[in-house]
Amino acid sequence: MLEYSVLYPVNNCARTAASLDGMWKFSFDPESKGVQDGWTEHLPNSISMPVPASFADVFTDHASRDYCGDFWYEKEFFLHAGENDVVELRFGSVAHRCTVYVNGTEICSHEGGFLPVVCDITKAAKRNALNTVVVKVNNELNESTLPCGSVMTLTSGKKLAAPYFDFFNYSGIQRSVYVVTKPQESIVDYDTSFAINGKDADVCYSVRTNGSHDVAVCLKDAEGNVVAQSEGASGVLHVTDAKLWNVRNAYLYQLVMVIRDGDTVIDSYEAKLGIRTIRIDGTKILVNDEPVYLKGFGKHEDFDILGRGFNYSIAKRDYECMKWINANCFRTSHYPYADEWYQLADEEGFLIIDEVPAVGMMRSTRNFVKAGTGGFTHFFETDTVPELLKNHKQQVEEMITRDKNHPSVFSFSLFNEPETTSKEAHDYFKAVFDHARPLDPQKRPLTGAFEKNSQPELCQVYPLCDFLCLNRYYGWYISGGGTAIEEAELKFRDEMDRWSKKNLNVPFVFTEFGTDTLDSMHKLPSIMWSQEYQEEYYERNFNVFDSYDFITGELTWNFADFQTTEGIMRVNGNKKGVFTRNRQPKASAFLLKKRWENK
Ligand code: CKU
To answer: What is the pTM assigned to this prediction?
Structure first.
């Protein structure tokens, strides 16, 4: 159980949430001398830096963009708080690890760049006065961090990130920061789960507080009318004529939780709630007992200049594009996204496969390419594993705790493309899955995405999954181009036939398939990288998908072009987007739109 509350900040009669977004002070610390030089109090020669944003792409020089090591942020804030209020700082995330100081006092440290950092600053902060928060950040990766990577040191001593994954190592304070005030006795967390009985529904709830006063909850409909209420920290809200949350047809209630002392409200927390069930039955994924076919994308938090910084306009545009193309689902490849992404998905009725940042768990510098072509990429036999496993479990716990109450989240993905063919890999992931299962009150299906090495005869990890997610590039990394694409289809069918023979009776979802495609390039007949080739590739892949009735979804790689580390395989990033990085459609977007209209 997490020691801190990751509840999204709200303003109400008991709580305040003041945004610290805006310009912060910022300094690189290549020699890691900040602590000894007193930067914990104040940064001496700082520049200004936007929050939330990645620092990389605001710069015009190589060294700053590609900076790897320690760096610092600072912000002053005036704290309005009552004498007895608890005061917290909540960072949506800080990539990849940080230590927070308030008025020079060290407050907390957090490992992992994609989940909230929450710290209690009640003692260190001055009420009704100016305060200074300083954050020491580090963006180095190794084989026991999530994601996995390494650091390359140049002759000059400069460090460079060498990620074991195919996205730019954006870092910094990339999500919103809030100063939160709340009462000492407060709501720490809550769980919900649902049972639908004919036209009615039961919302089972359980509220965790840090005190002993009574808890009362009520459920309001979208118009604000109370439709059910209950006393006690756990119980059942009976909803007559329940309006269900459905895929692309969302209905949201509001759950209001209150800690009371007689008629006095001690604490109150409210959140949107969607009533829906998720179940797997044989090869079908059922939402409210109706089968759904998943249509959509693997995505990234990625945009020009902002890097991985959360921005409402980009998120809104992405949902508009996904609605236009008739998608209903996306995977938060390869890390949990900002809270606001899930809030929007709840409203828009999108399904999310929520993924922990377990990516790059194969040994080789460009491991995803080596793996895609069948190279041996062992990983789980080294002494980095115990620490890696500890981080992995911790981040699974933080992700499930943060996201468990979103109706949009229908599954948790516990890895992307690790090595899976050894007993060590099996034992490692068995420990991760065993840790994850009891954490989800809704018992959602658990999965992970498998790359090409994870063949039916070799993979030791797929039996742990409730449904299988395959990332396959037949016609790109395998037998790509021109007339060879027909060979790719044969190879693809051969693999699917071998899966089919196993009679696993679980859903299979394609969570990656795609081709790098330049939005400027047309060619007849097609050639790899042309828009025509992307269309042909998709058509071939769809032919294969439509031949197997256990295939229950197709999430293309990727929603949009995105930035990666530079190299001979990437032309200013990965170009497998169906949309450009600027969110305009490539030719294949129209093909997908048509297919998904009736699928
Ligand atoms: C994607 C073996 C395939 C791995 N997959 C991972 C993803 O992060 C990459 O961007 C491949 C690709 O190569 O476009």
So the answer is: 0.97
CA distance linking residue 357 with residue 251, whole number of Å: 30
Cα 501 to averaged position of ligand 1 atoms, centre (Å): 27
Ligand 1 atom at minimal distance to the Cα of residue 165: 8
The amino acid occupying position 316 is K
Query: 509 and 457 share a domain?
Result: yes
Residue 567 belongs to domain with CATH number: 3.20.20.80
Q: What does the DSSP 8-state code read for residue 372?
A: H
How crowded is residue 457: how many other Cβ atoms within 10 Å of its Cβ? 7
Residues 314 and 299 in one domain: yes
Question: Is there a catalytic annotation at residue 417?
Answer: yes
Q: Among 87, 78, 81, 263, which residue's Cα sits nearest to residue 184?
A: 87
Q: Which domain holds residue 208?
A: 187-273
For ligand 1, atom 9, name the residue with the nearest CA. Answer: 166
Residues 176 and 208 in one domain: no
Edge to edge, the sheet with strand 253-261 lists: 226-231, 214-220, 253-261, 264-273
User: 199: how many CB neighbours lie within 10 A of its CB?
Assistant: 10
Residues 414, 493 within the same domain: yes
Domain assignment of residue 131, yes or no:
yes
Residues 505-559: tens digit of each pLDDT: 999 999 999 999 999 999 999 999 999 999 999 999 999 999 999 999 999 999 9
Domain count, the chain: 3
Number of neighbours of residue 550 by Cβ within 10 angstroms: 18
User: Ligand 1 pocket, 474 CB below 6 A?
Assistant: no
In the residue annotation, 419 being an active-site residue is answered as no
**Are both 173 and 194 inside the same structural domain?**
no
